[in-house]
């Protein structure tokens, strides 16, 4: 098992290098001159040239990349042009908010979606199945930001039940439990959006995974043993279906981290998504590069987690 | 029906596509989705014949008008007719979906066949590329690329197409790997056919079912990406209308609160289109894949 | 009738499909005697597997329905039992072995777990005793290293081993009736012989009746006491194994016999039955075998014959055979 994980980790390295090269090349082939903004406009031409040379403005992209990597491995991801502080500091302030939102959405949706998917599959073609399937299809079809706008309009603007945006009430200094409540209050709407969409796709997936498993011969064997239907479904079938369901859940984690950009932006939730959107609008290259790579890294680790879970649940996977 | 002749066993099979068509037709939601999509496509194509205004016709005396007889879905901030722009916007959104999917399908199918057919090194390299692309946070890369390439309808198509080929590539690869083991491929090899002939004439047609299902869902993705990018101001640029950039009107709190006709119709259209495509996609999957059908 | 353990009467099982209703088992009746082996023979699709699933009440829901008949086991009509009561019979008094050992065992549970499930459910054994009994069962079915295999997963075992595990599972609660649905079809020939040997030994050692379903007449001649031949959902011939092999009366049975290779008659060409079984949506009006029968008479096309006793203990559903008997009587 340990070897299996190490091998998987090693496999991640070339993929991550590939991602970093593409991201880096992409971002540094951008026209425009963001470095200019970093420099005091009152400097004379010669000083300016010198500074630009110093910060590597004239280097070719491969040289820039190597310089960047050698700094990055030492934990120096550069300075954010916009925030004028280390990129790591900027990101550290935001990543927690994104994780809070996406983990909550993932947890709640798993709790709702898996039982619904199982019931839907065991009662295939029933009214329950029909309604659940249609609602799930609606959930995977509705554009996140449109749903979000609808919620803002009805629940926040018209009914004033929730705040429109942000993570806490501005201008009030709350502490302790009150602060938690305030954050929860702000979190509700983006959480509803992410949870609904995640629940919809997870439910659909659970349903089809269960349907496939329920057709297998070993389910018939389990019934032929005289096992009660509950044991057949929740022990024999679910255990097998969980192999693919757990994969989907962990992969969704990566997806939620990166896919929440629109939802975060609409609600101005101060997470990585909003940060990256603003970074792109501001052409804040160091921030875009590191932010993209950080999310890619999270996705990679989510995939690793799914591989490990797969190996734990499915005895057929050999570790060597 | 199998008709069995007593002496020589002549069998008349119903062609596979007919069986699939019959199965598809029995799925009411899929049929409904197909009808809705056909209506949407027709109205988009014949937009100029349906509406009485020009797409960009401004009338600064009539801005932000409520829906009325003259403007059934009201007017926008420049006094343009919203209904007219919705129909023209449909052209943009639907063609972005179609063209970006075509790009994804071409890349995904070619790489998928090569990886599945040749295996070994080609497979390892292509699958690593797939891994790399799958780890990219789609919207982050998309908005970065959009910022670099500049907002335009063509760039949206390219971005969505280039970032969206991985799942189809994986599916095609898996299909090819299993088809490759079948006898008819052996037979084709024994007949001395070239690899290219075997791959594209004999194996490719057998992966059509998978390609069709994934392409359908890809179109939905393309439309969603267009809407998202345009909503953020990184997609289709005004004055050209698209469902996404019309939705962006809702970023104005006044419009969000008081002028529903500016953003709800375009949002609903995106939603209905995606929903219909998903209905059709589900129907196609059930119809083309007898394994999943009970 | 004391020596009858299972009596199937006028069983009809149907499937709803998107193309229409399919009658998979059509008015089937037979008895299984205590301690005896009943063989059911037929091509795939003739309804033999559905018959066995009907006895277990395991016909896939909601599309499969047992629409008529009685299945009397131990003076109870299995078709009238509620779910709880039929579950207490499944795996306990009647158990089943399936065709595909590769897929019939759950891949995510150990062999020991899967055997002990039925034991715990039906015998009330607990803890260490269950494990002991499992090892004992694995040894009975002649699995080497039983103590190790018990903690292994199905994918670590060969097909023959898995089928032994299935047998161990099936006999774990000393069933009165064992239904074996093509238990050797998916196995290599040498493994087939071993499994058949094992089953024969088990019949001698354990006091149980067996329904042995197969398309292989060779297996039937080795295993069965009584034989039922099924074609297109109906029984077409029924007799003791000796009578069937000495004097097959139905042309379908004869066809099956002729399509077997024989070591004795070297050089003879193998014969085969022409054509295919009729589509369930397009059943012939008369005898279902008529389109493939070379000896059919006019009557065969229009009317389905009944299953009649032509000799003592030898029933057949064939107009030609019935006529011959009639002629003999007249003479």
Automatic annotation (TrEMBL), chain A:
Keywords: Cell membrane, Membrane, Transmembrane, Transmembrane helix, Transport. The chain crosses the membrane at residues 9-28, 99-118, 130-152, 183-203, 245-267, 287-313. PROSITE patterns: ABC_TM1. It is found in: Cell membrane. The keyword Transmembrane helix applies. Its main location: membrane. It is a multi-pass membrane protein. Gene3D superfamilies: MetI-like. Residues 95-306 form the ABC transmembrane type-1 domain. GO terms for biological process: transmembrane transport. InterPro entries: BPD_transp_1_N (IPR045621), MetI-like (IPR000515), MetI-like_sf (IPR035906). GO terms for cellular component: plasma membrane. PANTHER family: DIPEPTIDE TRANSPORT SYSTEM PERMEASE PROTEIN DPPB-RELATED. Belongs to the binding-protein-dependent transport system permease family. This is Oligopeptide ABC transporter (Permease). The lineage of its organism: Bacteria, Bacillati, Bacillota, Tissierellia, Tissierellales.
UniProtKB/TrEMBL annotation, chain B:
It is found in: Cell membrane. GO terms for cellular component: plasma membrane. The keyword Transmembrane helix applies. The keyword Cell wall biogenesis/degradation does not apply. It is a multi-pass membrane protein. InterPro entries: BP-dependent_transpt_permease, MetI-like, MetI-like_sf, Oligopeptide_permease_AppC, OppC_N. One of its GO terms (biological process) is transmembrane transport. Its main location: membrane. Keywords: Cell membrane, Membrane, Transmembrane, Transmembrane helix, Transport. Belongs to the binding-protein-dependent transport system permease family. PANTHER family: D,D-DIPEPTIDE TRANSPORT SYSTEM PERMEASE PROTEIN DDPC-RELATED, OLIGOPEPTIDE TRANSPORT SYSTEM PERMEASE PROTEIN APPC. This is Oligopeptide ABC transporter (Permease). It comes from [Clostridium] ultunense Esp. The gene is appC.
From TrEMBL, chain C:
Residues 9-257 form the ABC transporter domain. It is an enzyme of class 3 (hydrolase). Its EC number is 3.6.3.-. One of its GO terms (biological process) is peptide transport. Keywords: ATP-binding, Cell membrane, Hydrolase, Membrane, Nucleotide-binding, Transport. It is a peripheral membrane protein. Its main location: membrane. It is found in: Cell membrane. GO terms for molecular function: ATP binding; ATP hydrolysis activity. GO terms for cellular component: plasma membrane. The keyword Transport applies. NCBIfam families: oligo_HPY. Belongs to the ABC transporter superfamily. This is Oligopeptide ABC transporter (ATP-binding protein). The lineage of its organism: Bacteria, Bacillati, Bacillota, Tissierellia, Tissierellales.
